[in-house]
């Protein structure tokens, strides 16, 4: 993909970088942001005033529709640096496609491709010192769009702002990840917005996730809203189960995010000759496999979480511990994926996108 930076993106450099104040060895996910951000406004029926400016607060009316009706979508992407200082993104075309799919569902106007990639390239060049080399270091990229039109009538806005902000990142989950299989609360329903990266999908998970945390678990694995018998996704990541040597994951649907890491793992599994089945996964099937000693591992896959092994799950009153495997699929996939992302191996699928 060759990128021409559109001439209509204006750039204002920061007068003083904040990079010296950052301890890159102990980053808490999503708390530190680079020197610059991108903004672009939708007004009078078109995206305009595309600009890269110093990162900082911006004034938005308390009557902006985003605050009242949650018209907001986002993406999660990452940039990586190799040992020679080259900067790469991983399948960014997938995120571009998906943010516009999410926007469409939330009645937000789609964002132009040249501005998206032009802004990303220019920002990553400007803030590349914030990307540290070494496996596990990355720059988390958060594009998002919000309704800025002033007014509390409950209808789609006619003004929006698109932002891109950048955050140096290490691990999303530190330590063990223990999950609860949901029996009551639901994340998404047929015909809803579960497939979209709509802000409200995430906010609605916080209360049930807090209940899980009170019981010593970190995350909820959402089940289908009709029966709670089928395992769907974790909200921050898609979910994979390994029974014997077969990998299982739920098919994407109205209710499940079409994760970039998820689809990359399925492709890698095929490439490596690992049997992977995309099918509805029953809670009972997983519990049964655990009882029979055939449930080898469960792991989550997502941009922020990368690949996160699950150490235990609970359902009802029972908790099921999972073994720590030396030769887990999770660590093998993580290694293969990172080798591609950090330009340490061949890229047979053309997933790596060099920025500078
Ligand atoms: C991502 O992996 O980018 C996500 O969307 C998870 C996020 C909610 C932290």
Describe this structure in words.
By secondary structure, this protein is an alpha+beta fold. It has two domains: 160 residues, D-amino Acid Aminotransferase, Chain A, domain 1 (2-Layer Sandwich), CATH 3.30.470; 162 residues, Alpha-Beta Barrel (D-amino Acid Aminotransferase, Chain A, domain 2). It has eight helices and 19 strands. The strands form two sheets. Strands 9, 10, 11, 12, 13, 14, 15, 16, 17 and 18 form a ten-stranded mixed beta sheet that branches. 41% of the residues are buried. Bound molecules: 2-OXO-4-methylpentanoic acid (COI). The site of 2-OXO-4-methylpentanoic acid has 6 residues, from loops.
List keywords for this structure.
2 domains, 23% helix, D-amino Acid Aminotransferase, Chain A, domain 2, 19 strands, binds 2-OXO-4-methylpentanoic acid, ten-stranded mixed β-sheet, D-amino Acid Aminotransferase, Chain A, domain 1, 356 residues, alpha+beta
